[in-house]
Amino acid sequence: MNTSDIDLPWIDAQTTSLDELAGARARSWLARSDRGFEVLRFHEGVAVLESRDLEKGKSFRRRLDELGIVDGKIRADWEQMIVCTDGPHRDHVRAPLIALFRGSQINKLRSAIRGIIEGVLDEINDLDSVDFMADIAWKIPPRVYCHLVSAPYEDAPRVARLSDSTLAPILTGDVSRRQESIDAFNATCDFVRAHLDARRASGSLGEDFTSVMIKQQLDGLLTEEELIFEGTALLQASVDNTVHQMGLAFGTFLEESDRWAQVVSNEALIPNAVEEVMRLRPRFGTIFRYIPAPVEIEGRQLPGDSWIFVSVRSAGRDEGVFEAADEFRFGRRHPRSLQFGAGPFNCLGQTLARLELHELVKVLRERYPAMRMIGDWTAHHTNAVTEVTRLHVALC
Question: For the whole model, what pTM was predicted?
Answer without folding.
Answer: 0.94
